[in-house]
Write a structure and sequence with these properties.
6 helices; 0% strand; mainly alpha; 167 residues; elongated
Length: 167
């Protein structure tokens, strides 16, 4: 099955980035989004209680709201970082980091996207399941935890030779 090619306003860095890599490339604005999500949920509960007071103490509700805000804020920050990998938002910083990181791996003779102990068909299935999954966080949060070779970019830009690609 051919990869879907999407025209984006910024360069594609990785069509299906590994979850650790997405978090490693967080910007301070992503952490601020995460913090805002964490604070907004219990804050909304508190102000809702001011408008329509409940007869039960808010302590448990605020704790649960803080936890759900923490999870929701993380998912929003993760999605924002993923959008930069896909080229949907400004990504010059990530492009420079990616080029430096993967060029170094290529010069050391290491596989660009890590080694996987999974068979090729499992890697392909993992790619097909996790590609575009950041758009479906509201229904089923899914992250890419499998190293595979399906990233939608040309490895030659990192200095990988044609011979190494065929191995």
């Amino acid at each position: 099955m051919p990869n879907k090619v999407v025209t984006t306003p910024y360069p594609l860095i990785d069509a299906d980035p590994h979850a650790v890599r997405v978090v490693r490339y967080f910007r301070s604005s992503d952490y601020a989004t995460w913090a805002a999500g964490t604070a907004a949920f219990p804050g909304a509960l508190y102000f809702w209680n001011m408008a329509d007071p409940a007869k039960v103490p808010l302590r448990t509700s605020l704790r649960l709201g803080g936890f759900l805000g923490f999870i929701g804020g993380f998912l929003m920050a993760y999605q924002r970082s993923s959008f930069r990998f896909w080229g949907w938002s400004e990504n010059k910083r990530e492009e420079d980091l990616d080029l430096a990181e993967l060029s170094q791996r290529a010069s050391e003779g290491k596989p660009l996207y890590g080694v996987s102990s999974q068979p090729e068909w499992v890697q392909g299935t993992a790619y097909r399941n996790s590609a575009w999954s950041q758009l479906k966080f509201h229904a089923f949060p899914m992250f890419n935890f499998v190293n595979h070779q399906h990233h939608g970019t040309d490895p030659a830009k990192y200095g990988v030779k044609e011979k190494e690609l065929s191995d």
